[in-house]
Design goal:
It is built from 16 helices and 18 strands. The protein is an alpha+beta fold.
Length: about 500
């Protein structure tokens, strides 16, 4: 104990003595502090950096309190961190951008959170055809770097989303229908294995890990940086089309028509949202985009032609448009996301809307005049996305058979509240809504039984939906690259490989 107190006192400006106690979890923090290469990168609960990083989580549900945070600055730091975790049996969590919603997504209660937030310097050499991005970058940081250079990548549509978790979970971008998932545009993953070894995974070197890493999240090692194909413009034409509630059915019909024909216009994308809160109003909208930056109103004519629709669509850079998505939400509140996948079908959307409105009324009655936000967001998953994936080496998402008979729409329910008592009152209603929608889809044969990991709720099991062959590939890669199962037993954050 005397040694630990002496060590901590020596660096008291960073880590207060009072926070170190003699238990297993804090012994891991002490082990990091004992490493001269890491001690100035370790932050205990009473440090200002710890408080700032904890406050920076998108969802308070995810902002668990580790015994310490370690913020590497380089791949070498990550290698040392991994070796220390391995040698000391430390329970740990992994944070990239900290944008996922559920408790346990990207941190750990007690133990060590390995926070990649300081590894965020995007590198692009003009003419190289690729961009190298550290896993701790947010997509807002990436776009701000690339915009002056006139290029972009198939990245996140919200500026606060982190590169690492987004990409290894699949990654739905503005370019999805043109190039596949973001993970399909990855040329190389740099990965630090559990024992500290640094390897590359690409089409020629460790190709089995390269494929498995495209969708299987943090189950193999610490992804430290990702090399992406470059996209040739920094311009995007897009924004929101808003609709009166009386035109909901017309919107559903136009949206399904658009989704069912997306394969003919790969650069055009439309999502759909229904937003409710404590006020009497319900907002219907379609976020649209043309990823070439060239205005193409004709591609969205059905969505524009609905009576009394209004629009904010205009020319943007990617750095300009990405913060607009975040502005629709409440960063720093308690967020809850639940996701399913259904066939693209007008009756399906109408049923979702009817059930949503009934649930919204129950929520308003349950917490009168208390502030909350409840959202349904729909995103298309098309055959083109899957075909591009296959052409680029494949991934493990298992969507080939899921959309074989036609396009589908991801349906994410998002409940956001400021206080925990509201969450306790309203989350059961949101879960009941999910169950009601699933029951309808099951009864009509419209449920695709697939869940997208970055939007999944904590008790969902998205990797189990990837299919027998892909799960076998994931297990084989884990057995080869993490033979001691460190990322299944000591890693406390994220979704694990199905047993």
């Amino acid at each position: 104990m005397a040694y630990l107190i002496t060590l901590v006192a020596a660096i008291s400006s960073l880590v207060p003595v009072a926070t170190c106690k003699r238990d297993t979890k804090n012994e891991c923090c002490a082990a990091f502090l004992a490493d001269p290469s890491l001690r100035d990168k370790v932050f205990l609960p009473e440090s200002s950096t710890y408080a700032e990083r904890l406050a920076d989580y998108y969802s308070k549900n995810a902002a668990l309190s580790p015994s310490c945070m370690v913020l590497p600055l380089s791949t070498g730091d990550v290698s040392a961190i991994a070796a220390t975790i391995y040698e000391n049996g430390c329970q740990f969590g992994i944070r990239s951008g900290g944008h996922s919603a559920y408790a346990g997504a990207n941190s750990v209660e007690g133990g060590v959170t390995v926070d990649f937030g300081y590894m965020n310097a995007t590198s692009y050499t003009p003419g190289s055809g690729s961009v190298v991005i550290p896993a701790g970058s947010t997509w807002g940081q990436v776009y701000e770097t690339l915009d002056p250079l006139g290029v972009s990548v198939a990245g996140g549509r919200a500026s606060s989303v982190g590169v690492g978790g987004f990409t290894t979970g699949g990654g739905y971008s503005f370019h999805a229908n043109a190039v596949g998932w973001a993970c399909d545009t990855v040329r190389n993953f740099e990965v630090v294995l559990a024992n500290g070894t640094v390897i590359n995974a690409n089409s020629e070197e460790n190709a089995d890990l390269w494929k498995a890493q495209k969708g299987a999240s943090g189950n193999f090692g610490f992804v430290t940086q990702v090399e992406f194909d470059v996209q040739p413009t920094n311009r995007i034409w897009g924004g929101f089309i808003f609709y009166p509630a009386a035109q909901a059915l017309a919107l559903f019909e136009a949206y399904v028509e658009f989704v069912n024909n997306m394969d003919k216009k790969p650069n055009s994308q439309a999502l759909m949202g229904i937003i409710g809160n404590e006020t009497p109003n319900v907002q219907y909208l379609a976020p649209i985009s043309e990823n070439t930056g060239v205005p193409d109103r004709a591609a969205f004519e059905g969505l524009f032609s609905i009576s009394n629709a209004t629009s904010s669509v205009k020319d943007h850079t990617y750095a300009d448009i990405a913060p607009l998505v975040v502005a629709l939400t409440h960063p720093g509140w308690y967020s809850n996301w639940i996701v399913e996948l259904y066939a693209s079908n007008v009756d399906m959307l109408s049923s979702i809307n009817d059930s949503f409105l009934k649930t919204l009324a129950k929520m308003r009655a349950a917490v009168p005049n208390r502030q909350f936000s409840f959202l349904v967001e729909l995103q298309p998953v098309t055959q083109s996305i899957v075909k591009h994936s296959a052409a680029r080496g494949g991934n493990v998402l298992g969507l080939d058979s899921v959309v074989a008979d036609g396009p589908a729409v991801m349906c994410m329910l998002s409940l956001t509240v400021e206080m925990t008592d509201l969450q306790e009152a309203l989350l059961p209603l949101a879960l009941d809504l999910r169950d009601e929608i699933v029951a309808y889809a099951d009864g009509k044969g419209l449920n695709k039984n697939w869940r997208y990991a970055p939007y999944a709720w904590g008790n969902q099991d998205p990797l189990a939906d990837y299919g027998t062959e892909n799960i076998a590939l994931i297990k084989a890669a884990a057995g080869k690259y993490d033979p001691d199962g460190v990322f299944q037993t000591l890693r406390a954050s994220g979704f694990k490989i199905p047993v």
